[in-house]
Structures are given as structure tokens and as C-alpha cells.
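Ops channel
N.P.: pipeline sanity check, posting one input/output pair.
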């Protein structure tokens, strides 16, 4: 595929600049080269791709805030061969964040590799010089302006989710600007949101509905993407973290200007509802739909059992090629995890042992496993037919479950009678792994041997080990093969899928106070695709709380859990839990795994605490690096940092 991503490695090197005002890049550097950069259409196009470049940092899950701070994954911080994985982001849940030297610092770029204010400055430069190339057609100019405004809006949105109120840098200051002129202050949260939405509204008319020439342009922004991001922005603004949050009511600029509105504003959900419905209608009108088994095209034998076909459909909803995936609205390119998928997969063959650095070391805690529903479509602690109290007891794989659990293998009852997404998203001791070069009808599929002296899943040492006994299988393409050598089948990390938009709209409708009859159809679209009964049927027939869906609070819990399951490991849960103000609930519980160094069933299946997360109210907002506050005395720090 020859898309705009092909240019980014070159453009990255060409576009790096060093600001003369490092605490906030509002003054353009390399002014003498601007005329050259816009001397003709080709040079200007290169500059446009440079504006796109900052997006790629988010495709690297180890530096993606929504991934590493979600409570979905753990990474051991004591590996002896940890040359290829920087654990700084993963260690944030251990309480390592500091205002003196913040990790994943997207404000000024230190410890993140990318300052988003630099990216915003590039966008401003693009907009200020777009009229210079005389060979640029009016239609191209309109599109490039729209793309740049979208990118500028998205970078502001990313910063807003991390830091809350941020300075609005709508134009670059001239090189002659005084130091005092560069000392910008933070704008109120509502002003930031309105600014981002205004940029998106300006961008949307100039963007194409879809990418027609996928060979050349896949990855560039479309109208559908922009509409979906607008819906996300307004939903974030309406959510508890930003809408009447008493914990942030005291945050003010030094001149006394309040940065948050202390009063809850229900009309924010109305704005979000309009935007989200517009986005869904646009997506559907442009051919987007949920990925279904008939979309499976690559190496799928006609004899493949329906059980595995259902699981494979859910896996390929993520890993199918963007060009042919009808559900994938927006995705990012990247290498970590989607070229190097071995970080998320167990050793499945004897030939795989010891070949790759840090293989299989990104683990999911037991709490993530227990988030998934039973096969009846309700939480495991609510299902009156499921033996929750004895879920850690031994059960042996049998013929009826052989496409999920290896026949005759000793594992725990918790792994049986779970929803299809459980088997699609997680690998575990005894779990079947369809793929890795063994396809066919599934009768001879590989499986994970997580315990015992002949285990392929993890050598009993402290060099390469999955610390919990659960792997994020969702992030491995079933066509990727890891044996004596590694053959990657790459895919793009999803940012927006249609399923996520349906669940977002269900959430908004519920927060508006709409009836369950209006809300539930959007949840059921996703559940039915996942092989589950609808909400009403599932809770009425199987839940210990059969009327849960009939009230706003109960339906909110259902929607939140549905989003966390459907979008697991996609760098979404961390953002959702933050805006819901529920991340602290997740982080106040110890993150546990099985006793993976043990070999017998009775010893292996003992939950052990890997770490107890450190999280309190201040962690909902990122700290601004302390040096920035010294250099720019108009900036104020986020609470309790």
C-alpha cells in the first residue's frame, strides 16, 4: 500500500525544529526556510504530511495515554532484556508521575518525543503560507486547509484530554515577539472546547466523504472522521470530568479567571447528541457498517466451525486490512505491537522459545478477564446460571468447548461459558489459538500451555515472562506466525470504529434521559454482532438484577461495561474511564495475575498481586512540567501537582 504514511519517516527528519522559546512553541523557527517549503505544490504537500506526523506517536501504544493508563495491561518493570520497550508509560500506574519531569509529556515534548504545541505551530505555519504555491489548484487548497484545521483541532483535543484548559494558539506570533508576548495563559475549558469544535466545523465542508484513491491517500482525513471526532469532543466536554466537576472548580488563572464551570450543564449532552447522530448518519451513508463473518476473506476454509468463525470475525474487526474493513472509520499506522505483535502473544510452539526480545510480556490482569460477560451476555457476578463463587475451581476442557478450550486440558471454570469476545480478545492457559500458521477447520488448532515444565507460554525465569497468564490476543493478527522465525501480518491500530460510535450515541442518549427503548437498540447492534442476546433478553432472563436496564443509572453501568469490553485494548478505555471519573475506581484495586512461575494446577491458579496502582484525583489531569511554570509565570499548575 502506497499511502501518505510512506512519506512520514522522511518528513519527520525534515520537520524537526528547535524553538527559541522552548516552554511553549508559539514562535516559528527556521523562518528563512518557510518560503522554500512553500515554493511549489510538491514542497507544500511535504509540509502537509509533516503536519500529519504527530499522529503517528499515538499509534505507538507504549506512549499512548489511553492504553498505558487504562488498567487493562501490565508490563514488568524488571526485565533484563528490556532494550526495545521503554516502560515509562506503563510505570505511571505505579505512581511514578512527577511535575518535575512528567512522563508522556505532550506539552513540551520532554519524555514523550513529541510536543503537540510544536505540531500545532506547524499547522499554523501551513495555514499562514498556503497561498504561496502558485501551482496549487483551488480544490487542493481547500482540502489541504481543511485537513490542517482538523489536525490542529485534534492536537488541541489530545492536549485537552490530558491537561484540561490549555492555551489557545490560533496563530503563530512573529519572530519579533517579545518574551512577554509569548507568555500565554490557559483558556477556560469551555472556550477550548468551542475553539476545537469551531475548527472542526470549518474543516468538515472541505474534506472528502471517503478516500477514493486508497492506494495513494489512505490515512488522510475524511469528513466522516472529522464528524466522529467532533462527537467525541462534545461527549468528553459533557462527561463528569469536565462538566460540573467540583474537584476542578477552584482552578483559576492568576488573574482570577475560572478555568472550569462549576455548574453541571445538561445541554452539553444535547450538543453531543446532535453531533454523534450526524456522524453515524454520515458513516452509514458512506458505506460503513459492522464487520460480519461474511467479510472474512483471507485463508478461511469453508469447513471452519461456526464457533471459531464467530471469534475470528471479532478478531478481524481489528486486524483486517483498513482498505477492506467496512467498520474501520479511522486508524493509525505504527510499529510497536502491530509490527512487533510478539509483545502480545504467548509462545505456542517449541521453536518459538527464546527468539525475540521481551516476547509476550504485555499482560492483562485478572480484573480485565473478569470484565467480559458470560455467554448469556451479563456480567459474571450477575449471571444467576454461572458459578461465580467457584470460578477458580478446576475444569477440564471437553468436546463441547474444544474450539475455545483445548480438549482434555486442566484450566479454571472462569474460562468456560464466556462470551465470544472473551475468546477473541484474550489468550490464557488452555485457550485455543486459531492461527499462527495452523488454519484448517480448527480441529487441530494450537493452544496456550501456560503452566508445567514443557510450557511454551513463558519460560520460568525473570527474563521473558507474562506476569499474569493473560495475553491481549486482540492485538495479534491471526495470520501472524511466530515459530523459529517471525512473520508479521500488519494492521492499523483503530481510533474510531462504527461500533464505538453506536455505543457512544447510546451513552449520550441515556445521559439525556431518553427512554431505554431509544437507547438499547444502539447497544444491541454491537451485542448481536458479538454473538450475544440483546440487553432486555439477557438481563430479564439471566441477571440477578433483571430490571437494571430500566433506569438511567443501571443502563449507564451496562453501557460503560459494554464500551470497555467492545473497545478493550484499543487505547480507548483509559480515556473513557477518565472522562467518566471512574479510573480511580479501577486503580484502587490491586492488579492481579496467576502464580505463573508454578507448574501444578493448584499452585498456578492462585491469584497474586502484581502491583497495587497509585492513583488519586490529581492523576486525572497531567502535570505541566514545573520548569514551564517558572519560565512562563502566566501559567498555573493543575490541582495538587
Amino acid at each position: 500500500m502506497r499511502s501518505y504514511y510512506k512519506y512520514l519517516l522522511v518528513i519527520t527528519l525534515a520537520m524537526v525544529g528547535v524553538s527559541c522559546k522552548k516552554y511553549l512553541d508559539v514562535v516559528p523557527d527556521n523562518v528563512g526556510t518557510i518560503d522554500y517549503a512553500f515554493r511549489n505544490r510538491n514542497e507544500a504537500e511535504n509540509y502537509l504530511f509533516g503536519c500529519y506526523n504527530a499522529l503517528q506517536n499515538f499509534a505507538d501504544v507504549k506512549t499512548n495515554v489511553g492504553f498505558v493508563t487504562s488498567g487493562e495491561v501490565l508490563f514488568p518493570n524488571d526485565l533484563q532484556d528490556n532494550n526495545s520497550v521503554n516502560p515509562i508509560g506503563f510505570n505511571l500506574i505505579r505512581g511514578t508521575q512527577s511535575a518535575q519531569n512528567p512522563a508522556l509529556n505532550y506539552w513540551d515534548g520532554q519524555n514523550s518525543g513529541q510536543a503537540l504545541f510544536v505540531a500545532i505551530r506547524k499547522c499554523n505555519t501551513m495555514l499562514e503560507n498556503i497561498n504561496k504555491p502558485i501551482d496549487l489548484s483551488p480544490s487542493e487548497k481547500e482540502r489541504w486547509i481543511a485537513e490542517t484545521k482538523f489536525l490542529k483541532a485534534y492536537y488541541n483535543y489530545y492536549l485537552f484530554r490530558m491537561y484540561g484548559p490549555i492555551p489557545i494558539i490560533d496563530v503563530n506570533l512573529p519572530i519579533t515577539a517579545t518574551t512577554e508576548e509569548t507568555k500565554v495563559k490557559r483558556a477556560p475549558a469551555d472556550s477550548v472546547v468551542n475553539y476545537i469544535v469551531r475548527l472542526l466545523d470549518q474543516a468538515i465542508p472541505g474534506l472528502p466523504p471517503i478516500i477514493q484513491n486508497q492506494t495513494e491517500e489512505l490515512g488522510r482525513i475524511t469528513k466522516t472522521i472529522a464528524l466522529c471526532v467532533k462527537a467525541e469532543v462534545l461527549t468528553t466536554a459533557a462527561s463528569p470530568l469536565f462538566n460540573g466537576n467540583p474537584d476542578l472548580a477552584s482552578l483559576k488563572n492568576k488573574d482570577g479567571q475560572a478555568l472550569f464551570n462549576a455548574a453541571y450543564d445538561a445541554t452539553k449532552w444535547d450538543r453531543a447528541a446532535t453531533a454523534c447522530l450526524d456522524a453515524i448518519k454520515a458513516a452509514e451513508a458512506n458505506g460503513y457498517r459492522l464487520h460480519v463473518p461474511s467479510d472474512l476473506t483471507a485463508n478461511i476454509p469453508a469447513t471452519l466451525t461456526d464457533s471459531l468463525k464467530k471469534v475470528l470475525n471479532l478478531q478481524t474487526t481489528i486486524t483486517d486490512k483498513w482498505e477492506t474493513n467496512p467498520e474501520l472509520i479511522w486508524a493509525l499506522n505504527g510499529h510497536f505491537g502491530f509490527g512487533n505483535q510478539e509483545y502480545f502473544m504467548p509462545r505456542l510452539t517449541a521453536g518459538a522459545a527464546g527468539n525475540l526480545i521481551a516476547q509476550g510480556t504485555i499482560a492483562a490482569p485478572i480484573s480485565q478477564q473478569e470484565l467480559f460477560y458470560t455467554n448469556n451476555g451479563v456480567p459474571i457476578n450477575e449471571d444467576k446460571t454461572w458459578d461465580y463463587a467457584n470460578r477458580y475451581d478446576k475444569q477440564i476442557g471437553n468436546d463441547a468447548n474444544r474450539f475455545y478450550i483445548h480438549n482434555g486440558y486442566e484450566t479454571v471454570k472462569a474460562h468456560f461459558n464466556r462470551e465470544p469476545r472473551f475468546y477473541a480478545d484474550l489468550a490464557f492457559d488452555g485457550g485455543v489459538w486459531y492461527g499462527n500458521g495452523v488454519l484448517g477447520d480448527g480441529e487441530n488448532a494450537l493452544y496456550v500451555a501456560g503452566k508445567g515444565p514443557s510450557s511454551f507460554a513463558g519460560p520460568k525465569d525473570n527474563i521473558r515472562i507474562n506476569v499474569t497468564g493473560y495475553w491481549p490476543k486482540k492485538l495479534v493478527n491471526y495470520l501472524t506466525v511466530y515459530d523459529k522465525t517471525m512473520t508479521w501480518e500488519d494492521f492499523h491500530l483503530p481510533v474510531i470504529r462504527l461500533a464505538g460510535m453506536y455505543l457512544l450515541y447510546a451513552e449520550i442518549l441515556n445521559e439525556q434521559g431518553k427512554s431505554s427503548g431509544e437507547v438499547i437498540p444502539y447497544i444491541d447492534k454491537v451485542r448481536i454482532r458479538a454473538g450475544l442476546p440483546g440487553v432486555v433478553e439477557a438481563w430479564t432472563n439471566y441477571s440477578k438484577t433483571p430490571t437494571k436496564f430500566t433506569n438511567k443509572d443501571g443502563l449507564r453501568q451496562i453501557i460503560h461495561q459494554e464500551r470497555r469490553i467492545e473497545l478493550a485494548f484499543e487505547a480507548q478505555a483509559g480515556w473513557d474511564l477518565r472522562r467518566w471519573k471512574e479510573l480511580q475506581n479501577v486503580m484502587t484495586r490491586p492488579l492481579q495475575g496467576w502464580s505463573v512461575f508454578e507448574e501444578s494446577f493448584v499452585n498456578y491458579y492462585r491469584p497474586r498481586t502484581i502491583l497495587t496502582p497509585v492513583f488519586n484525583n490529581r492523576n486525572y489531569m497531567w502535570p505541566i512540567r514545573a520548569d514551564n511554570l517558572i519560565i512562563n509565570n502566566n501559567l498555573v499548575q493543575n490541582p495538587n501537582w
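N.P.: looks fine end to end. The longest strand covers residues 328-332.
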